[in-house]
Design a protein that fits this description.
- This protein has 252 residues and is α/β, with parallel strands linked by helices.
- The chain has seven helices and nine strands; from the N terminus they run βαβαβαβββαβαβααβ.
- The strands form two sheets. The protein has a seven-stranded parallel sheet with strand order 3-2-1-4-7-8-9, with helices on both faces. It has a two-stranded antiparallel sheet with strand order 5-6.
- Helix 3 runs parallel beside helix 4 and helix 4 packs parallel to helix 5.
- The longest helix is centred in the middle third of the chain and has 28 residues.
- The chain is globular, with a radius of gyration of 18 Å.
- It binds nicotinamide-adenine-dinucleotide (NAD).
- The site of nicotinamide-adenine-dinucleotide (NAD) has 26 residues, from helix 1 and helix 4.
Length: 252
């Protein structure tokens, strides 16, 4: 795919990796449909993207709310009459042990703690992937659905909910590649390792040292390294149905 003048939707574009991807794609001439819960942060991303001379529009939506997702993508179809990709990046973590015994008391992960993460990470990806594919078909656009998974999909302690959700979105990309290839739509998952963000900047030095010792590359990843993988997946039309691991060689 030619990046210049493509139209790409990104969920969770208000901050973090999603914002970084948006800015990086804007620099390559991509027009953007930016989706997030947070209107203020979205408009900051929009302003920064537009400084590179592209069109960027904001769609405030909760990816777990079907009617909000459907309206956002209907509006994207009206605004751009084209859609060449969606990055299902919006995601949350609510870590906790499945079962923890403390002072003779058995504590458990609540159903709400499990389902809230599954809702945003899995149902949100399902809804946005589905609606994006519909717009691609309605507008006769060739496109790519990219699901952001994680190294945690292998199963990380304290992350029953998050690990399960990230395994699910990786598998969904494989299914969609098989189902949608006939329509000229590809689907790929990207599984980042630990990436340097505002969140990881708060990890204490001892904990950081332990973490880095688990990464063969000897450091955390950079947001740019995820953004460049997004560009690679968009540009290379023979990449589909696979999980791209960008984790410095880390294994859970
Ligand atoms: P972040 O918390 O900085 O940003 C997430 C964005 O998603 C926020 O702007 C938030 O408002 C938005 N969002 C959350 N729930 C939403 C909802 N229901 N509807 C719409 N928007 C919603 O996270 P990040 O670190 O940038 O991570 C982005 C993605 O990458 C996530 O899916 C995360 O699981 C994945 N990931 C991150 C890392 C890392 O090291 N940062 C590693 C592996 C995978």
């Amino acid at each position: 795919m030619e990046l210049a003048n493509a139209v790409i939707a990104i969920t969770g574009a208000g901050q973090g990796l999603g914002k970084h991807m948006a800015l990086s794609l804007a620099q390559s001439g991509v027009n953007l449909a930016l989706i997030d819960l947070d209107a203020l942060q979205l408009s900051e991303t929009q302003t920064q993207c537009e400084s590179y001379g592209v069109t960027a529009r904001c769609y405030v939506a909760d990816v777990t709310a079907e009617h909000q997702v459907c309206s956002a993508f209907e509006q994207i179809e009206t605004d751009f009459d084209q859609l060449n990709g969606v990055v299902n990046n919006a995601g949350i973590m609510r870590d906790g042990m499945f079962i923890k015994v403390r002072d003779g008391q058995v504590n458990t992960m609540s159903l709400d703690q499990f389902q809230s993460v599954m809702n945003v990470n899995v149902s949100g990806t399902f809804l946005c992937g589905r609606e994006a594919a519909k717009v691609m078909l309605n507008t006769d656009s060739k496109g790519v659905i990219i699901n952001i998974s994680s190294v945690a999909r292998a199963g990380n302690i304290g992350q029953t909910n998050y690990s399960a959700s990230k395994a699910a979105v990786a598998t969904m990309a494989t299914v969609w590649a098989k189902e949608l290839g006939r329509y000229g739509i590809r689907s790929v998952a990207i599984a980042p390792g630990v990436i340097k963000t505002a969140m990881t900047d708060q990890i204490k030095p001892e904990a950081m040292e332990r973490l880095v010792s688990m990464i063969p590359a000897g450091r955390l990843g950079e947001a740019d390294e995820i953004a460049s993988t997004i560009k690679y997946v968009l540009e290379n039309d023979f990449v589909t149905g696979r999980v791209m691991e960008v984790d410095g060689g880390m294994r859970m």
